[in-house]
Specification:
Elements: H1 3-25, E1 29-30, H2 35-40, E2 45-46, E3 49-55, H3 62-70, E4 76-79, H4 89-94, E5 102-105, H5 110-123, E6 128-132, H6 138-155, E7 158-164, E8 176-182, E9 188-194, E10 201-207, H7 228-233
Parallel strand pairs: 3-7, 3-8, 4-5, 4-6, 6-7
Antiparallel strand pairs: 1-2, 8-9, 9-10
Helix pairs in contact: 5-6
Protein name: Translesion DNA synthesis-associated protein ImuA
Organism: Sutterella seckii
């Protein structure tokens, strides 16, 4: 048998294994409710493991995307930037998220942000963790990100790590990486890189910024409206969400 025939057979076998793996994972996803992104991710974000989201300082709607995904989790921990902002409660309620099931922490340092995310995963109480994680030294960053991936995988939780876009030059440490790339005022390029046993795969889409706005009710939101008592009992403060996040 020639080398070319052997290579072709090997490649075909790899594609078959990869296709079977995708089928098995299809029901193990957190859809965000934005059709283009869910299609890009073959149904949504992984329910277990680390997803890196690399976004520019100007922000490109990643919060809208994550609220849709987190709405499927029974409970979540949010590790916020150290600027002391408050969540925008109407945005959470629009996605049917019970705010009493969410925990918000504001670590004072980058190292403590990593600690908080790891503790949240290891507790086994959170199905999802959303963490804004600044860059550490290259060596420490690699070690801490690998620990987070291991904790998320071990405890079956989804970790969404929002990080500076400048870290795109480093190798991914999770199961999925999304890179937000501004394409002028009219569109956003989102590149998804998925880490697999045999090979990494990358796909990308162009998306209109309006798709990531919080003005419309998400397609995948539970059919729940807060009661009058709920609305009046929760003060709404100027906040971090949806797009007022500080730059790193």
């Amino acid at each position: 048998m020639s080398v070319s025939i052997r290579l072709s057979a090997f490649a075909a076998k790899g594609r078959a294994i990869f296709s079977a793996s995708q089928t098995a994972e299809a029901g193990n996803r957190l859809a965000c409710g934005i059709r283009e992104i869910d299609d890009l991710l073959d149904g949504g974000f992984p329910k277990a493991g680390l997803t890196e989201i690399l976004a520019p300082a100007s922000r490109r709607g990643e919060v809208r995307m994550l609220l849709g995904a987190v709405s499927h989790a029974a409970s979540a921990v949010w590790v916020l930037p150290e600027r002391g902002f408050e969540p925008f409660l109407p945005a959470f309620e629009a996605f049917g998220i019970d705010i009493s099931r969410e925990l918000f922490v504001v670590p004072p340092t980058a190292e403590e942000a990593f600690d908080a995310a790891e503790l949240a995963l290891s507790s086994g109480e959170a199905e999802a963790v959303v963490a804004w994680l600044p860059a550490l030294s290259p060596k420490q960053d690699r070690i801490r990100m690998r620990r987070l991936q291991l904790a998320a995988q071990t405890h079956g939780a989804a970790l969404f790590a929002i990080r500076p876009a400048a870290l795109a030059c480093l190798a991914p440490e999770g199961v999925l990486r999304l890179l937000f790339l501004p394409e002028g005022a009219e569109s956003i390029r989102i590149r998804a890189t998925r880490m697999n046993a045999f090979l990494n795969t990358a796909k990308e889409i162009l998306l209109e910024p309006s798709k990531l706005a919080l003005g419309q009710r998400p397609a995948n939101a539970p059919d729940r409206q807060p009661s009058k008592d709920e609305r009046t009992s929760r003060p709404c403060q100027p906040s971090l969400f949806p797009e007022a996040l500080p730059a790193f």
